[in-house]
């Protein structure tokens, strides 16, 4: 019996998928179809899949073409599956021509011609029209976002607005339009990404919302509670999204960590220790601007996991800080909850170990530095032989997952 295996996401299953499965089926006597898991799709940058893995498996099953359906969950699984199932032929669409030649060592590799004129991407665009994005402000995060936007289906960057010359270079590099005024750009886009000085955030956000544009803004998003309440109320009244860009929250490993904590694997959380710090190359220049201090740069990031796991209803807050000429180099804070405590240390111009420890009644979780780029953590217990090591690809493309 000749066994054939093929893989795909099979999102919004269409006749192109079915034609490919029919061609694969004709290559042998038994067809195994691998359907990518939700986590695997995220890890490889496929961020706009509309259906869950269960729905996609059911759709493939309903075609009656698959003799067996498996789930593809990790990079390198194809070799393992070929050996495990005794595969004779690996079949895949011709748009992957050459990509899987390395599998010829294990079985025959066949690239099947794809059906022209139909794709899941086109169907997704019809269901969810492309979001036209404008970039406001040019600092380091903005260029990182531009690099990653190409991995986000359903998103098109239109142009950049910011006074100065740096954006001219970026516009030429990424073939974008340079806008002379913010109002001009807001007429052409559906959403804006803001990477500017925090003192400019409120006005920029207000202008965007009043022009019916969704907003994704770098952290920290506001200087005061008044600003936050005012702008979030405005967004809600206009049925728009106003979002703070803390990409750590969208890393698969961080999402996995939250699931483990909520499942009770380490018992009830009783304490959290978090630290973040950096020493910029241009420290002398940075320290001249008070809004560049440690609390402004790291505060939202350090507090995000605490709020996610312990909430906002703390009883007491104690802060210790080191300032010089109005610039905040270091802050240490303690939040006291009804049944837990949390301590955070943040520094800009001071260096410390950037790990996170979550203490529970049954065990604890250790996330090594830099925890805000989490791709690995350990679940530890009294018996160290029971330690569990959790790995996950670090998502540089978390920007796309927050869109």
Describe it for me?
Keywords: Oxidoreductase. GO terms for molecular function: nucleotide binding; oxidoreductase activity. This is Glycerol-3-phosphate cytidylyltransferase. Belongs to the Gfo/Idh/MocA family. The protein is of the alpha/beta class. It folds into 3 domains: about 5-120, HUPs (Rossmann fold, 3-Layer(aba) Sandwich), CATH 3.40.50; about 130-245, NAD(P)-binding Rossmann-like Domain (Rossmann fold, 3-Layer(aba) Sandwich), CATH 3.40.50.720; about 250-395, Dihydrodipicolinate Reductase, domain 2, CATH 3.30.360. The protein is built from 14 helices and 19 strands. It has helices at about 15-25, 40-45, 55-65, 75-85, 120-125, 140-150, 165-175, 180-185, 200-210, 225-235, 250-265, 285, 295-310, 400, and strands spanning about 5-10, 30-35, 70, 90-95, 110, 130-135, 155-160, 175-180, 190-195, 215-220, 240-245, 270-280, 315-325, 325-335, 340-350, 355-360, 365, 375-380, 390. The strands form 3 sheets. Strands 13-14-15-12-16-17-18-19 form an 8-stranded mixed sheet, covered by helices on one side. It has a 6-stranded parallel sheet with strand order 8-7-6-9-10-11, with helices on both faces. Helix 10 (about 225-235) links the parallel strand 10 (about 215-220) and strand 11. The relative contact order is 0.10.
Which features characterize this protein?
403 residues; oxidoreductase activity; Gfo/Idh/MocA_domain; single chain; Rossmann fold; 8-stranded mixed sheet; 3 domains; alpha/beta; oxidoreductase; 6-stranded parallel sheet; Gfo/Idh/MocA-like_OxRdtase_N; Dihydrodipicolinate Reductase, domain 2; Glycerol-3-phosphate cytidylyltransferase
């Amino acid at each position: 019996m000749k066994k054939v295996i093929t893989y795909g996401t099979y999102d919004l299953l269409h006749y192109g998928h079915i034609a490919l499965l029919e061609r694969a089926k004709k290559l042998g006597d038994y067809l195994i179809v691998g359907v990518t898991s939700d986590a695997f799709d995220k890890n490889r940058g496929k961020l706009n899949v509309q259906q869950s893995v269960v729905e996609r498996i059911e759709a493939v099953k309903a075609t009656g073409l698959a003799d067996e359906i498996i789930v593809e969950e990790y990079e390198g699984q194809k070799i393992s599956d070929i050996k495990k199932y005794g595969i004779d032929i690996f079949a895949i669409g011709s748009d992957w021509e050459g990509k899987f030649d390395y599998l010829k060592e294990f079985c025959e590799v066949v690239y099947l011609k794809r059906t022209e004129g139909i794709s899941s991407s086109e169907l997704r665009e019809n269901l969810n029209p492309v979001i036209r994005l404008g970039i406001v402000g040019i600092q380091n995060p903005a260029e990182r976002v531009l690099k990653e936007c190409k991995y986000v289906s359903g998103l098109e960057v239109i142009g950049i607005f910011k006074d100065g010359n740096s954006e001219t270079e970026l516009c030429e590099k990424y073939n974008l339009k340079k806008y002379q005024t913010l109002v001009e750009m807001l007429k052409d886009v559906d959403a804006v990404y803001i990477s500017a000085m925090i003192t400019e955030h409120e006005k920029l956000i207000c202008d965007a919302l009043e022009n019916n544009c969704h907003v994704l803004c770098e952290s920290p998003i506001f200087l005061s509670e008044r600003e936050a309440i005012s702008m979030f109320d405005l967004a809600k009244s206009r049925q728009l999204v106003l979002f703070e860009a803390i990409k750590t929250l969208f890393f698969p490993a961080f999402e996995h960590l939250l699931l483990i904590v909520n499942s009770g694997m380490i018992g009830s959380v009783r304490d959290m220790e978090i630290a973040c710090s950096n020493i910029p190359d241009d420290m002398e220049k940075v320290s001249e601007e008070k809004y560049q201090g440690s609390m402004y740069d790291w505060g939202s990031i350090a507090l995000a996991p605490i709020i996610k796991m312990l909430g906002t209803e703390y009883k007491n807050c104690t802060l210790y800080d080191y300032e010089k000429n109005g610039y905040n180099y270091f802050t240490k804070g303690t939040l006291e909850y009804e049944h837990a405590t949390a301590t955070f240390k943040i520094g800009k111009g001071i260096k410390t170990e950037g790990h996170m420890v979550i203490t529970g009644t049954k065990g604890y979780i250790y996330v090594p530095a830099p925890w805000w780029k989490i791709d690995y953590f350990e679940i530890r217990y009294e018996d160290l032989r029971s330690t569990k090591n959790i790995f996950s690809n670090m998502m540089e493309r978390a920007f796309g997952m927050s869109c």
